[in-house]
Amino acid sequence: AGCISSPFDTSDIVTTTTHKSLRGPRGAMIFYRKGLRSVNKKGVETMYDLEDRINFAVFPGLQGGPHNHTICALATALKQANTAEFKAYQKQVMKNASVFAETLTGMGYNLVSGGTDNHLLLVDLKKSRGIDGARVERVLELANIATNKNTIPGDVSAMTPGGIRMGAPALTSRGLVEKDFVEVAKFFDRGVNIALEVKGATGKKLKDFKAALPSSEANAELKALENEVAHFSQQFMTVGFEEDSMRYGEAITA
């Protein structure tokens, strides 16, 4: 889409997932250079030898038979990536992520690297609020907000890391724009405050924190946040589903 610098200009090998910003099926792709690699002072040519090594490592080294339905879905995603609509979508992803980062920074949150140049944000919760990503992740999960706890520089535990990671592609696909990400940031902040309240009453163990959530005084706040997130989300169409054919469609209009 031309939104960020291409890694192909400077890399011999490029890898990518296919189910995130590409919006394709779950999987990944590996790109590698072929042909002439270098010529020494004596004129001796060295060719790239990556193809066979990578192919053998993938199959039979790591994977079995091909999943033809996944290959077809990936081909569809790659075709869509060549459209003007996809480029517009990626530009909106970048705008949304930028506003999301600016809003969180304005609320006093520290972002690793000071901001974002792509679709991702990594919030330093330890420095910002004195809490870990595992606790905040759990509170947000109960409030219908999907995030990932994530290690940050200086962390010694991946189970209770100091950061939390969030991205803009999925919400952008549902039609959210800049002003909507301001609201998402507010939801996030409320979730962090709920986590802080429960943490203050439960001690150091994560299991005690999780066990206390349903019966804590903050549970009413958590339920209110859950309902507000659901109500907010109803105005944005789900991608790839017709509401009348969804198994849990009644929950959307409840």
Automatic annotation (TrEMBL):
Belongs to the SHMT family. Its cofactor is pyridoxal 5'-phosphate. This is Serine hydroxymethyltransferase-like domain-containing protein. Transmembrane segments: none annotated. GO terms for molecular function: glycine hydroxymethyltransferase activity; pyridoxal phosphate binding. GO terms for cellular component: mitochondrion. Keywords: One-carbon metabolism, Pyridoxal phosphate, Transferase. Residues 1-187 form the Serine hydroxymethyltransferase-like domain. It comes from the Eukaryota. GO terms for biological process: glycine biosynthetic process from serine; tetrahydrofolate interconversion. PANTHER family: SERINE HYDROXYMETHYLTRANSFERASE, SERINE HYDROXYMETHYLTRANSFERASE, MITOCHONDRIAL. It holds the Pfam family SHMT.
